[in-house]
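Escalated from tier 1: zinc ion holo job.
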Amino acid sequence: MIVSPSLLSANFADLKSEMDWLNQSPADWLHLDIMDGVFVPNISFGFPVLKYVAKLCNKPLDVHLMIVQPEKFVQEVKDLGAYLMNVHYEACPHLHRVIGQIHEAGMKAGVTLNPATPVSVLRDIIEDVDLVLLMSVNPGFGGQKFIPHTTKKVKELRELIKETGSKALIEVDGGVNAETGKLLAEAGADVLVAGSYVFNAPSPAEACALLKAL
Ligand code: DX5
Ligand code: ZN
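Tier 2 regenerated the structure:
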């Protein structure tokens, strides 16, 4: 399992220490949740903060944009040195063009689906994306309860990927812990995002190791 701890649950007053344990941990990526108060009912952090996080972090950056018009920020995400840029299906009327712009910038491109958006909308884009991020909570806040229906969506997406020969990875975000992570692993997830479960654990690095072993 690829494990991507979400910075949203970190101690923002001590990001240096958070990056220190993360760099030494078995975590694979660092998940960065950017919000605009429009696409989602919350605001998190933006590029001026992330510029310093990126300097401290030696893991590939998995950037999740919960904003309208994410295509306006392809260059900023690239400048962070991001590995992956995730945009919401619901925020992109011209998704095919945005995916092309992300690839032209030299990043992996991910498309994210809200809980109420069916996997079937991906049929005509699945071969062009490197990853699909399925939201297992309504985006905007950490610490929410996992929506159980997500495991069905993971299975359905796994079928679509097989059928089309797509190479897309399946990532899941929201309410992931040891229990829900196991269900997601069994359903066919490749990447687990975890915020509160990892950052509130007595040993965040051990929590990452546990998810990684699923
Ligand atoms: C929610 C964010 C998540 C969040 C997950 O909108 O996209 O990445 O940090 O937090 P947990 O793991 O606590 O549900
Ligand atoms: Zn996220």
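The first strand starts at residue 2 and ends at 5.
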